[in-house]
Write a structure and sequence with these properties.
8 helices, Rossmann fold, five-stranded mixed beta barrel, alpha+beta, 2 domains, OB fold (Dihydrolipoamide Acetyltransferase, E2P)
């Protein structure tokens, strides 16, 4: 396994700048996610790392070796595509063996390594099956085995689970993470599915308009977003406009349409000033419905309720706008139409962001 570094990558397609000075280092053995909305540049960055696109400027390094100008087959990286790209006229074994045959590996070595790869993806004994005899999840495993059999230094995955149903996606998340860790691979995974990234990633980079908006471990990005874009993209949040009244002991007090709210800043490179317009982010699970006196109280009316077994979701109309609330262990069940309902959120659970 080797670390991978993208150093100040710029990629232009005519007058369009797809990547605008992106720098990121993926640690050896790390499962690293690139995610963001369509058109943010995540797939273009992956293709530059794979050698399928050439950066307009900047460098790509695998370990200490610069590979910016090397063709894909000389980078010792393997890519798994969204469409799987399997050969329909070849059986499972021949699909997996294809890359080794191209590399002129001996037949005995091909047989041994194909067997190991199929065992790793839990497809032992299925080598003679036709591709059309496999389920979507099995086809995805074949695509993984084909990538792994060449023993890449880096595994690149471009939205590999987007064609699977919800249940199979959850199963394959666990399998891909297991395969990466058992195989000792450095892996870069592109997706727009934030739940997928939260469940699988060691670290992630959130991209917007060809730049990295925030980088960190899943729990860091979720709990401490640095912008409204990141807060809204990773998970769900309630955004409330406010004006800074006071800054004290690391907390910011802001006046909102529902009254004053207190929260904390998460971006070490930004500190608001008194009078600044800011946005406050409150996760649905950070709100608690309670009649007792608590931090950051606001009142509202319940306009919708959904009972989901493991939790209850509420939508409340408040002076600060509609608030979505998720209660895991409610003290009581509230009914639609109930008014003068009081919400609370701890100061540490309210994030103050640049407006």
């Amino acid at each position: 396994m080797e670390p991978i570094r993208a150093d100040n990558i710029i990629k232009k397609f005519g007058t369009v700048t797809a990547l605008d000075g992106v720098s990121v280092e993926v640690e050896a053995g790390e499962l690293f996610f690139l995610l963001g909305a369509s058109g943010c540049g995540k797939t273009t960055l992956l293709r530059c790392i794979a050698g399928l696109e050439t950066p307009t400027s900047g460098r790509i390094l695998f370990g200490e070796k610069e590979v910016t100008s090397l063709p894909p087959h000389k980078r010792e990286a393997a890519m798994v595509f969204q469409s799987y790209a399997l050969w329909p006229h070849l059986n499972v074994e021949r699909n997996v063996a294809f890359g080794l045959e191209e590399r002129k590996v001996s037949k005995s070595e091909i047989q041994r390594r194909v067997g190991e790869a199929l065992e790793l993806v839990h497809l032992s004994g299925m080598g003679d099956r036709g591709i059309d005899q496999l389920s979507g999840g099995q086809q995805q495993r074949v695509a993984l085995a084909r990538a792994l059999v060449v023993r890449p230094k880096c595994l690149l995955l471009d939205e590999p689970l987007s064609n699977l149903d919800a249940k199979l996606r959850i199963e394959m998340r666990r399998e891909i993470r297991r395969i990466v860790k058992e195989g000792g691979l450095t892996a870069i995974y592109v997706t727009h599915d934030q739940e997928e990234a939260l469940a699988m990633a060691d670290r992630m980079a959130i991209m917007k308009a060809g730049r990295i908006e925030q980088l960190g471990r899943p729990e860091e990005v979720y709990r401490d977003p640095h912008s409204s874009y990141v807060a809204g993209f990773i998970g769900e949040t309630n955004l409330i406009k406010g004006k800074v009244l006071d800054i004290r002991d690391g907390f910011v007090k802001a006046e909102t349409a529902a009254g004053p709210l207190v929260g904390r800043c998460t971006d070490a490179n930004w500190t608001p000033a008194i009078g600044d317009q800011v946005t406050l982010s409150v996760r649905p699970e950070a709100w608690t419905i309670d009649t007792a006196i608590g931090e950051n109280p606001i009142e509202g009316t319940i306009v919708d309720r959904s009972y989901l077994g493991q939790c209850i979701q509420y939508d409340l109309s408040t002076p600060a706008g509609n608030q979505h609330v998720v209660e895991l262990n409610p003290h009581r069940i509230h009914e639609t139409g109930e008014n003068q309902v009081r919400l609370h959120a701890r100061h540490s659970d309210v994030i103050v962001l640049k407006d």
